[in-house]
Every structure is written in C-alpha cells, then in structure tokens.
Amino acid sequence: MRAKLDAIENKQVPSGQTVRFARQELLDYAREELVRKKVSGIRNINFVLANNHATGAALIDFHRVQESVQGHPPGILSRLLLSGERSVEVELRLSSERGWCRIDVMSVEVDGWDINGRALDWLIDNYVMRRYPRAKINTWFQLESNIKQVALTPSELTVLIA
C-alpha cells in the first residue's frame, strides 16, 4: 500500500492509469497508521465498502484517544458523556469528479444512539480535526498529485490519474 501511495504522491503513475486498493489493504493500512501515529483507544476497526459509500465501525475510548492525540485528559463534558469504551459506527458518502472530491458524513452512531447536529460537529472538531487539521469533511476539496477521480466499490478504492 505504501508503495502505491508513494507512486501517486510522487506523480510516478502514468496518466490515465487506475491504482486499486483492495478493502483488506485499506483495513490493514488503517490499523498500521493507528499504531504508527501512536493513537490509542481505538480497536476492532472494520468497514464495509459499497458504491461510493463506506460504513465503518470500531470500539473507541474517546478519553484515551484524546490523551494520545492532545497529551492531556478530556474536559468534564467529554468525561460525563463519553466515559469508557463505546461502539461507534460511521457511514460516509464519497463524491468525486474532475479533480475534486467530497466526503460527507451521512450518519454516526455511538452505542446505538444517532449523533447529529451540534453534537456531531463537536465530535468531529474535537476528535478528527484536532488530529487531522487539514481534513476536509462535508465540503469539496481539490485532489492532489494529478488525481482525477476516486471511487469506492464493494471491493476496493480506485484512484484514477489525470
């Protein structure tokens, strides 16, 4: 997986070619990145791919995640609402065309409870954007490295090079 990503980032993939990442390859990469970046508090990661949709699930201890990412324990509100390990499920929709991409959060469930509105914004701000400040969620962004389009199928992620 790393070799494919490096080839894309270094613009070594010929124009018009498609690079494919199998579901298991993506899953292994996600698990390796958590270890490499020393993010604790996330385990049992799994996801299902569909046509330009993905549903992911994991057990998440939000306190351990925040401590590993920010170096300090969470505030009182977080401790009251999210103490202990939680079952989390997220559904995403992927849209991509002409060198642009958008990843929309369709739904989030924590222990079977739908999270939406300001609560969802708070979770994204405190647990995603703090770790990945350049992440783009629910907005269009330009793809880099000569990528023309990305797409999900039930078995893989495909990256089309312009």
Describe this structure in words.
There is one protein chain. By secondary structure, the chain is an alpha+beta fold. It has one domain. Helix content is 31%, strand content 40%. It is built from 5 helices and 9 strands; from the N terminus they run H-E-H-E-E-H-H-E-E-E-H-E-E-E. The strands form 2 sheets. Strands 2, 3, 4, 5, 6 and 7 form a 6-stranded antiparallel sheet that branches. A 3-stranded antiparallel sheet has the order 1-9-8. A hairpin with a 2-residue loop joins strand 5 and strand 6 (113-115). It is globular. The two termini are 20 Å apart.
Largest sheet: 6 strands, antiparallel
Rounded to the nearest angstrom, the distance between the terminal CA atoms is: 20 Å
* Residue-averaged pLDDT: 92
Give the structural class. alpha+beta
Shape: globular
User: What is the string of helix and strand elements?
Assistant: HEHEEHHEEEHEEE
Number of domains: 1
Strand content: 35-45%
In helices, the fraction of residues equals 25-40%
Over all CA atoms, what is the radius of gyration?
17 Å
Let me know the number of strands. 9
Uncertain ranges: none
